[in-house]
Amino acid sequence: MTLDMINSARRSSFYLKSVILIPFVGLTFIAVGLVGYLSFRNGQEAVHHVATQWRNEINRRIEEHLDDFMGLPGKINAANAGREGALPTPGARGRAVRSTLS
Questions:
Q1: How much of the chain is helix, strand and coil, in % rounded to 5?
Q2: Mind listing the pLDDT tens digit for each residue in 9-47?
């Protein structure tokens, strides 16, 4: 065997390794990149969904508290409307105060 034959055999084996290795490495990178991208997008959608649910729950609770808070003066007025003139007045002094106010 001459030196040229050995060098050509090495070149062809190197070329064969490259031809086999590069597509596999490329496919591996493509597969890993695609799985990573899909996982990232799925995570974004899940976070968006949970944030929307949380925002809706907070809005519902705020509306509930505001309804309770804003309804309280109406309830107080309704309760006081039935008690008009029903305040206890002690004795003659109370009648004098009531006649002064009337």
A1: 90, 0, 10
A2: 566 556 778 888 899 999 999 999 999 999 999 999 999
Q: Which amino acid is at 52?
A: T
Query: Any idea what the Cα angle at residue 79 is, between residues 91 and 77, rounded to 5°?
Result: 105
Check: pTM over 0.70? Answer yes or no.
no
CA–CA distances in Å: residue 46 to residues 32, 43, 49, 51, 76: 21, 5, 5, 9, 45
**Cβ(95)–Cβ(89) below 8 Å:** yes
The token duo for 59 is: 């809005």
Q: What is the mean pLDDT of the chain?
A: 80
